[in-house]
Amino acid sequence: MKRKPGFAFEEKTMMTETVTSTFARQLEFAELHAWLDQWDNFPDDLVRQFRFGKHWLGEVLVITSPVIPFSHFNQVMGFGLTQSATEKELDDILALFRAENIKKIELHHIPHTQPPQLTSWLAERGLRVVSGWDRVYRGNEPLADETALPAGMRVEKVTRATMEEWATFLVTWYNLPQTKLLLLALVECERWHHYVLREGERIVAARSMYVHHDGNAWWGIEAPVPGFMTPRFDLDYHLCREIVKDGLRLGVKYFVADIEKVSPTMDHDGYRNFATMGFKRVYYRSNFSF
């Protein structure tokens, strides 16, 4: 892909870093805390409308919404990380989804998940890998790349004045108009920061950051997803670099994100862009579903 004029930086290759099980759990729980906070911030009327469920099995969180046909809203997080999973726990979790007739789920598996035979248990119960992402992170070191935004671009935080435009942008990309009310409920919530990149007056990219009280920040709610929804990686790069700057100002200790367009050789602009921002790849996350 050709870079747009004005988009030049030192070429860097993403590094793969081996992390301990304890640190992997910390990175995974950054996402768990973000989804838990979303569920807790949704108003009661929306909880009833979307039939949101929140189930704890020890430190494993299962969220459900049979009304929304999107796997992110029907997830298993933290399974086999704090302690080794058991077949009974797995059966109890799957029973929650079957009770609601939910067929599109996400159960994350990383190399640190225990026990090793868990993937066999999943296969025996009809689950298979449907997707996978590379998890990346960076610490709170200063941002080395100070490249200015290209002319005509600017990054803004979403406010009540712009939240309708932001939410419409997202639900249009995902074709999930019913989730617009959920997005609006997260605007100006404590710990949530929503950003848009504008080219002229038009929104061309969006991402959100949740900052937990432990200083870990998770990135999500992004569109368009580079490599899937758009061939362009530069828009996401410009937006993410400004989010890092804001996160450092907010005191973030670790930034946690995913590269969804996975390449075994890490040879596309998504990897190079994250490497330029100081991110490292730590492991591959397999997503299992029925």
Radius of gyration: 19 Å
**Secondary-structure element pattern, one letter each:** HHEEEHEHEEHHEEEHEHE
- The residue fraction in helices comes out at 25-40%
Mean pLDDT: 95
How would you sum up the major sheet?
Answer: 11 strands, mixed
The N- and C-terminal alpha carbons lie at a distance of 35 Å
Low-confidence stretches: 1-9
Strands ordered across the widest β-sheet: 1-2-3-4-11-5-10-9-8-7-6
Structural class, from helix and strand content? Answer: alpha+beta
Q: Choose one word for the global shape.
A: globular
Count the DSSP helices. 8
Describe the secondary structure blueprint for this structure.
Blueprint: H1 21-41, H2 44-49, E1 53-57, E2 60-64, E3 75-77, H3 87-99, E4 106-109, H4 118-124, E5 128-138, E6 153-157, H5 163-174, H6 180-185, E7 192-199, E8 202-211, E9 216-223, H7 234-249, E10 254-259, H8 269-276, E11 280-289
Parallel strand pairs: 3-4, 9-10
Antiparallel strand pairs: 1-2, 2-3, 4-11, 5-10, 5-11, 6-7, 7-8, 8-9
